[in-house]
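User: For this week's homework, look closely at the record that follows, marking any run of repeated tokens, and judge whether sequence predicts the tokens.
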Amino acid sequence: MWQVDVALNTAKALLPFQGALRAFKRKLFPYSGDARNTELAFRQGLEQIAVLRRCGFSFDGRAVLDLGSGWFPIVPILVRIAGANQVHLTDLERLLDRETLLASARFLRARIAEIDTALDVPAGRLETMLTPPALAFDDLLRWFGLTYTVPFDSGSMPHVDLVMSRTVLEHIPPPMLAKLFTDFRDHLCDGGMLSHIVDHSDHREHRDKSLSRIDFLRYSDTAWRLLTINMQDYTNRLRHTDYLTLLADEGYEILFEDRETHPPSVEDARRMPLAARFKNIPPEILGTIVSHIVARPS
């Protein structure tokens, strides 16, 4: 039940030493992740690369910043394969380690034929790129052409040609999101772009299928904040059009937008009691559960 998860995560958030506890747990039990999410990251990474190329972006020799890289840098390694010269991995806390980096390479190595077809990179070259020698973590990062910055500070980020993320923006409070978009604009090279895939669904539903995928739209902002004391549980509940407005306000033009509408969620939006801030939003927007947006500074 989602209530149990929220209670446990809230208790963990109140611990003064949760970072050390997490590190100790990782030493005992290496992080294995969710195979379905890893597969989804692979599919969405190929999608982002294909869309960016259609928008006129060339990865060859470019510098890319991946926001919120997480445990398994599937998308950053795909971006390197696509031709990027350097990919900067970022997070607020250290999640990536040597084992999850190697696991990502093994995952991609098992899909060489599909990557060859999608990215037009010869299988032999892919085999070499995805089979690193026995190296320590920092040397392994250099092997893959990656850097890793934790904690990430957007105000001192390097100048890059592309900032991208996958299922990260929904975890960032709106005022911080506005600042990020400003900092990204100030650190993008000429012709630079943003590419973001956003998960608009209620993340509690990922584990408790008795919930609607937009159940969290029932709660007031105050109630929702109390349910998400642990930032691991927090999502900002912004809808697809909110991101478009926020980007426009921060000086971007939209090059590409796509959204996945979930029909059962659209029906839920029509019948369920909604918090005041969502009552005047069309059900089709409330029932949008995934967005992909590509933008560039105006």
About this structure: The two ends are 45 Å apart (CA to CA).
